[in-house]
Amino acid sequence: MSDPAATAALLCVRDLAVEFRIAREAPRTAVNGISFDVPANRTVALVGESGSGKSVSAMAIMRLLPDNAHVSGSIRFAGRELTSLPTSEIRALRGGAMSVVFQEPMSSLNPVFTVGDQIAEVVRVHERLGRRPARARAVELLGEVGLPDPQLRVHSYPHELSGGQQQRVMIAMAIACNPQLLIADEPTTALDVTIQKQVLELLARLRRSHQMSVLFISHDLGVVGEIADDVIVMQAGEVREHGAVEQIFTAPKAPYTRALLACRPDLERHPRRLPVVEDFLSGKVPSMVDAPRALRADQEVVLEVTGLTKSFRLRDGLFHRREVPAVEDVSFTLRRGQTLGVAGESGSGKTTVGLTLMRLHQASAGRVILHGADGPVDLLGLSEAGMMPYRRRIQIIFQNPYASLNPRFTIGHILSEPMALHGIGADTPARLGLAADLLQRVGLPRDALTRYPHEFSGGQRQRIAIARCLTLQPDVLICDESVSALDVSVQAQVLNLLLDLQDEFGMAYIFISHDLAVVRYMADQVLVMSQGRAVEMADAESIYRRPRNPYTRKLLDSIPRGLAGRITG
Amino acid sequence: MQRLRHDRLGMGAVAVVGVFLIMIILVSLHLLAADWADERGAHYANPTFLGPGPDDLAMIEPPPGKMLDLSAVDPLAPHYAQIEQRTRQLETTQRPRVRTLPFGGDRYGRDVLAKVIKGSQVSIVVGLASSLVATLIGTLLGACAGFFGGRVGDGLEWLYNVFTSVPYILLIFAFAAVSGRGIVSVIVILGLTGWTGVYRLIRAEYIRHANREYVRAAQAIGAGPLARMFGHILPNVSHVILVQLSLNVVNFIKTEVILSFLGLGVSVDSVSWGTMLNEAQSELILGKWWQLTAATLFMAVFVTAFSIFTDSLRDALDPKLR
């Protein structure tokens, strides 16, 4: 390369291609000839949706790919060619000059060893320190990554720490031998927003104090904008755009980058429909004119919840049982065609609210009044059989589209089962006809009926789950983190579909999400929950403009907002 | 079913299992191996392909020296000619013992091939039926324990603990004392004592699946507990059941041997692979290996074919594999 900066770069990747060979099938290309540099003392971000090849590239650099992967091209790290390095030398590099932080801290730490042992092991392997100095170094590192009481924490087992603390331990292990390059593979994706902010700040601080480079892998442009110096946008195994972070955010060149920036809901703009990637790739630029959804207060009330409480009883010792409150005294009113957003971090009880409303958990106290043609009914007071006719009117879409459809059933079976249970449609052919109509309505072909769930992508499966709820034509639809597992571009499509269906059928939504930007986009009213309690409830506009509760304010401040939220620390 | 048809190995296994089943139907209709109890061959007759073994009688050397004439003192001596003449008038009904049999003979000179075919009737019926009974009990109880948990789960755990804490042979004796002898009681005994392994695995699977989102979703649309247990979860744990079923078939064919050995299984006048293996222990010292080989070969072929069949059935039922 003639570029002088490239020769000085810490990591040079040239024409990297990775193919996976699966028995007797044609090799599948995961990465298709990408080139990039990671200069010393900079943070470079690889951004892309799932399947874009960003994690595979990182694993190729660490030589951590499985045996059936075929890697070609050149990876030079500090002047050494990694692709042809013997295994023993690669092993010395891993965890030494080059280390990695994975996405899931819970599964990356060994549950049967203390965190001190696990950090000390890294130091002992790479720096040949004795037991005592290694232990002392572990304490020092835990202090450096900001764990309170490192002297005590060094004796903790992973399950005794929270997710954020576990990720700090992973980072401590990664920086234990002062690496030149830290690869962070979606390090904050599994964490709550407030913790995410802290971990990002920690990474930025460590990068400066340790004089290292960071290769930061993420699907979230908002996070990338806050931490990266250079950004590489990847799609389908190829680099779509490569540039400094300011250029990517202010003057994106590739249509794909523009699409990624636009299809994620943000707090400032509220177009009626979210643009999707196809709009940009086909060249037409969708309208981004604000069309705020007015709160329709004149509609009749469909659901009235007062004092909803749910506590779980845990066995504590042999005979004693302990009550653990999950939801305490939550009240709200929902009108036809309206959306209530429920926002909160993990453990705030927002999912429990949804499950309790559906009677999938038995509530401990409170009233859930469903208004309908036959007058108000308290759902919590009904027997299981008495609940049956009301199940039609309140439905739920779960978070994980991979888990919420029975893998052994065809789509036709999945969609016709609720109709058969509730006596909709005369016979099976009639039900399958209705099911096919609904599939078309949610944007899937009619012949999907005979296929199985695993043949569909995540977004398509979520559409199937939506169609299953539509078979019953409910009045209230609970969306429990329904778009959280989806890529941003797919998420935009599903959100658009949900809004269209709401206008068409006049359903009321309870939209549960940890993602405040998505809740802002969808909801008319927002309920913020923390530790089982509703801390604030107001209409969406005022809660985001003038949050009154300190927790709400903290939550809003933690939302990644790209360049605007740049961590300078 | 169509997918099973595309699996060549699976279809081969189905054919082998089919041949065995046809064989035991013919046996039970007395069309095949009906004469297994006939003592046709010599004591431990050799298999035909080995050729006749040495004649034991011919090997006894005549004593050296001249034979003494005892007719002077033998009171029967004058009658010998008469006796001989009378014997000639009688017809011999006992056929001479053949020196070789297709796959050798046992201690009484019974044909080992006929014996092993007859024996497969008892063994396969006992193995399949008791495995079905045990898997059915284990699945039902495991599903209840895993799905409902709580009091039901605790109660079934107690039952499981009681069953596993009693030594197996003692447990079998206890049941046998109540139910008596015969093939049906062997099936009942094995079924009632052998469900614990299946129970444990199915319970674990149900605990895992009961809180999956697809089961929640089924509950949300109003599917009752039975529909969720058997309509939704059962197809997803069927692979465990199939593997347990085929493992248990092998196990129970072997356990039937123990029962027969203890005098609780099939009666002395009938035969199973188990009793053959049992006899073979003492024969091996004499170098008579064919009874062991025949029983082992039949059992191995059947068991292998059966487990390949259940494996391909499992694959055919899994929509992810095509």
Q: Describe it for me?
A:
The complex is a heterodimer of chains A (569) and B (322). In chain A, 37% of the residues lie in helices and 24% in strands. Chain A is an alpha/beta fold. In chain A, the strands form 4 sheets. A 6-stranded mixed beta sheet of chain A has the order 6-7-8-3-9-10, sandwiched between helices. A 6-stranded mixed beta sheet of chain A has the order 16-17-18-13-19-20, with helices on both faces. Chain A has a 4-stranded antiparallel beta sheet with strand order 2-1-4-5, covered by helices on one side. In chain A, a hairpin with a 6-residue loop joins strand 14 (365-370) and strand 15 (377-378). In chain A, helix 5 packs across helix 6, helix 5 (115-127) packs parallel to helix 8 (163-175) and helix 18 packs parallel to helix 19. The model of chain A is unreliable at 1-6 (pLDDT under 50). The model of chain B has no long low-confidence stretch (mean pLDDT 86). With 322 residues, chain B is mainly α. Chain B contains 12 helices and 2 strands, in the order H-H-E-H-E-H-H-H-H-H-H-H-H-H. The two termini of chain B are 12 Å apart. At the A-B interface, helix 15 and helix 16 of A face helix 9 and helix 10 of B.
